[in-house]
Amino acid sequence: MDRPAKNGHLEIVKWLHSNMGEGCTTYAMDFAAECGQLDVVNWLHNNRNEGCTVAAMDGTAQNGHLDVAEWLHTNRSEGCTTSAMDEAASNRFWDVVDWLARNRSEGGAAATIATCASQGDIERVYWVPLHWTHSV
């Protein structure tokens, strides 16, 4: 069930759940979140007990899936690591960086500033500490 979840095959996930007694691991929700499969993440949350890990929000931030990050923040308690902001900045998903800075407390601002500096993005170097709602 983990792989169909990652690839967004919700009907297959449902079928495996109903007909095969197929189990899954936390990878199912982690991978689905990382790949932006919000419908799968939501279904797993409502129908399975495995849950997810911090890798779910880290991966979704890294890949710029703001809608999934917001959903995880509202519906799950695992949170994320500093990698969420660092990787979102590396990949220039500024809407995700902005949202993380305003809504999460895991940190990552120092590394994010370093990433922006290494990319020559002086505006973002100044932007991060001004918008980070937690201590840098």
UniProtKB/TrEMBL annotation:
Pfam families: Ank_4 (PF13637). PANTHER family: ANKYRIN REPEAT-CONTAINING PROTEIN. This is Ankyrin repeat-containing domain. It comes from Phytophthora cactorum.
